[in-house]
Design goal:
By secondary structure, this protein is α+β, with helices and mostly antiparallel strands. Helices cover about 45% and strands about 25% of the residues. Strands 1, 2, 3, 4, 5, 6, 7, 8 and 9 form a nine-stranded antiparallel β-sheet that branches. Helix 2 runs antiparallel to helix 10. The longest helix has about 45 residues.
């Protein structure tokens, strides 16, 4: 497999240049086109007068446009506060009522009060109340297409009450609570429907409750009484629409007793911004501190909804090249007001960036982007008269200038964009047929480069080539010693699986597993060196330096193991055998670079550290572990990992003993890699047992390992207990 990969790389690197196709014989040279263009730009004297008048008018119109945009942005905070202040006032009013009468936390009459507030503000979709005892009351508008508790509301219902009271459990020892849903058509009418479901809903465990509790705790006691939190957008479970919540805490004797929140759809702000925009084509974006779009009036909403989760969109990935270009110029030049020309359409835009200070403690920025042409309607009418007075000569000259400039600039723009795409390894299929000789030469060269690059990326990993190019080193034989982290994976019992699995299904199994590991490595900025049968070799820290190479390797390993669980479930559904992956990780100084000959080379790592990583993968079999890391890797990233000690071993080919560890999870709040309660307990208990083992207190260690076996049915502990028994037998021979 390694030889095949090296052959592919050598073929890509040794592609010989081929002669370019000659342009058509009747092509016009660029030098002649430029000469004609300059001759056409010699305007008569009255053309200078027209130009002077036009420039003066243009300046006046543009200054007026800039002033309107500045005024629009400066008033944005007041306008948004006018939109949200009624909600804040409603919240504070309700919070004071409940603070004055805490019994309202459980009193059904609070639903009628919340309904009154809901009806008074048509922008709201729901109001809810949650207490520190776990009670929950919500009043919600019924909208078309809603699904509430897996049911479709009655056709004539306009709102519903949702009540959760922990004191009203289905039974005394029940672990669930009753959620009661009641639907009404009008306030005074009888309920249209009422149903009860048993679930484990607890508002205190919900993000809106935790976030408000933690944030309000940081405020001073005097500010808590009027503390308002504008939460992050989320997807409503009943409407599947983007929603935001404004909430306020309820304190009693400086203790957090609960909260009340009011929710509205994110489209409310978007529609409001559209209603106050300056011109028809003006785009307004509200951005957070990281450049993510909170809401916009542009071509997209600033977010996508995937599996009922709201995924924010960064302004640099927003639909529309104009806003991307504007934001890049802002981050580069730090100017808050400027104008630019759209690279694709040559349209001029006016841009204004304005911060929203002290807006609900949000570090938001308003970006307003408006085509200059929207403000020049009156100026265009004047220009028409100027053109008429200019006469046919000026009209003809303008036509010729436009045609020639387009003939020259348009193909060059296309080629420039095409070359930029090629540098980003995103080949396009644009074909340019120009009568200009030099452009045809350039187009032919770019087409040749495109074909070469397409062949090149077929054999060489695109990410590796990108890293090599960014490193600034020439692609030549040679290498350097560098401290890296190497990872090896292998499938348990693959020989047995391959004997009983047909070739087509076997290929499907291996491809799914290799794709899973490769994607995890790529996510963590690693490089897949090679596939060796059912094994994967990858490394971190080259060709680009990576100070956290050990940590990223460990994260990739945990992700691979967690994702193998889902893959195995899918394989079982398809009648295929499940796969078990073993992983070894080691950090060491190794030789990295281009190895081979001038015509056939491979970018890889070599050295004793590579062999140790491979052997650590095999050691998993001896200790019944899944991810085995060396002490060197542990020293690099141990404080960010959940590990447990395995043993102190002697690696074949290396003098001295090295401690090894099993990696179980990653410290942090990433749900994909964070540890379970079981894994945390397993780490702590194993550390206690291994401490006794290391101090040669084998009887105590054996007892502790037995406790782990009884609690967790742990294979490693079984092996280590047997080792303790062996030591005890040596110490007390029969």
């Amino acid at each position: 497999m390694e030889e095949k990969k090296t052959t592919r790389l050598s073929r890509s690197l040794s592609v010989e240049s081929m002669p370019l196709a000659l342009p058509r014989s009747y092509g016009i040279k660029l030098r002649l086109s430029i000469s004609v263009l300059f001759m056409c730009l010699i305007l008569p004297s009255f053309g200078l007068v027209i130009y002077y008048v036009y420039k003066n008018n243009y300046k006046i119109y543009k200054e007026n446009a800039s002033a309107r945009i500045t005024n629009h942005n400066n008033q944005m905070q007041d306008k948004l506060e006018a939109l949200l202040d009624p909600i804040s006032a409603s919240l504070l009013s309700l919070a004071k009522q409940i603070h004055d009468d805490p019994k309202l936390f459980k009193n059904p009459s609070i639903n009628d009060t919340m309904l009154l507030h809901l009806e008074n503000n048509p922008r709201l979709v729901s109001i809810f109340l949650a207490s520190d005892k776990g009670s929950f009351h919500q009043v919600q508008k019924v909208q078309e297409g809603m699904i509430i508790a897996d049911r479709v509301p009655p056709p004539d219902s306009n709102f519903n009450f949702w009540v959760v009271e922990p004191s009203q459990k289905p039974s005394k020892n029940a672990t669930t609570v009753n959620s009661v849903f009641t639907f009404f058509k009008t306030r005074d009418a009888e309920p249209l429907d009422t149903f009860v479901i048993s679930n484990d809903y607890d508002p205190r465990k919900r993000p809106f409750y935790k976030n408000l509790s933690a944030t309000a705790a940081k405020a001073t006691e005097s500010l808590r009484q009027r503390f308002i939190l504008l939460d992050e957008p989320y997807v409503s479970g009943s409407t599947s629409r983007a929603t935001m919540t404004v909430s306020t805490p309820i304190y009693e004797d400086n203790r957090f007793k609960g909260m009340i929140g009011e929710s509205f759809e994110l489209s409310t702000i978007s529609n409001f911004l559209k209603s106050i925009r300056i011109t028809q084509n003006t785009q307004t974006y509200i951005l957070d501190a990281g450049g993510d779009i909170v809401v916009s009036t542009g071509a997209d909403n600033g977010y996508t909804i995937e599996k009922k989760k709201l995924i924010k969109q960064n302004v640099l990935t927003a639909d529309g090249q104009a806003v991307q270009q504007a934001f890049k110029m802002f981050t580069t030049e730090k100017n808050r007001q400027f104008e630019f020309t759209h690279e694709g359409t040559s349209e001029s835009y006016l841009v204004q960036f304005t911060e929203l200070p002290n807006f609900y403690d949000k570090k938001w920025t308003v970006l307003t982007l408006a085509p200059e042409s929207d403000f020049l309607i009156g100026l265009n009418e004047i220009n028409k008269r100027l053109i008429i007075y200019g006469g046919l000569v000026s009209l003809l000259l303008a036509f010729l200038t436009y045609g020639l400039s387009r003939k020259i600039s348009r193909p060059i723009e296309i080629l420039a964009n095409d070359i930029r795409d090629l540098l980003d390894f995103n080949p396009s299929n644009k074909v340019i047929n120009s009568k200009i000789f030099e452009i045809n030469i350039l187009s032919s060269s770019v087409n040749k480069l495109r074909n070469t690059l397409r062949a090149f990326t077929t054999y060489v990993p695109q990410d590796l080539v990108n890293d090599l190019l960014r490193s600034g080193n020439e692609i030549e034989l040679g290498g350097e010693s560098r401290y890296l982290t190497i990872l090896f994976t292998d499938l348990q019992g693959f020989s047995s699986i391959s004997e009983v699995t047909p070739s087509r299904e076997l290929m499907k199994l291996i491809s799914a597993y290799l794709a899973l590991v490769t994607y995890a490595v790529k996510e963590e900025s690693g490089t897949v060196d090679k596939f060796i049968g059912d094994s994967v070799m990858a490394f971190w820290g080259a060709p680009l330096l990576n100070q956290n190479h050990a940590y990223h390797a460990c994260v990739a390993a945990v992700k691979s193991q967690r994702r193998m669980v889902a893959l195995n479930l899918q394989l079982k559904k398809e009648g295929l055998p499940p796969l078990t992956v073993r992983i070894g990780i080691h950090s060491d100084a190794v030789l990295v670079g281009n190895i081979g000959s001038p015509t056939r080379m491979s970018y890889t790592v070599m050295g004793d550290g590579v062999n140790i990583a491979a052997r650590l993968e095999g050691i998993n079999k001896d200790f019944l572990t899944s991810i085995c890391i060396s002490h060197a890797t542990y020293k690099e990233a141990g404080e960010r990992l959940w590990t447990r000690p395995v043993d102190v071993i002697t690696v074949k080919g290396r003098k001295g003993e090295i401690p090894i560890y099993e990696l179980l999870a990653i410290r942090g709040d990433d749900p994909e890699t964070m540890p379970t309660d079981r894994e945390q307990a397993l780490c702590r208990e194993t550390q206690k047992a291994f401490a006794q083992f290391s101090n040669q207190r084998y009887r105590e260690a054996a007892d502790l390992y037995q406790e782990i076996i009884d609690s967790f049915d742990d294979g490693l502990s079984m092996i280590m207990k047997n080792r303790c028994i062996e030591h005890l037998a040596v110490e007390t021979p029969i």
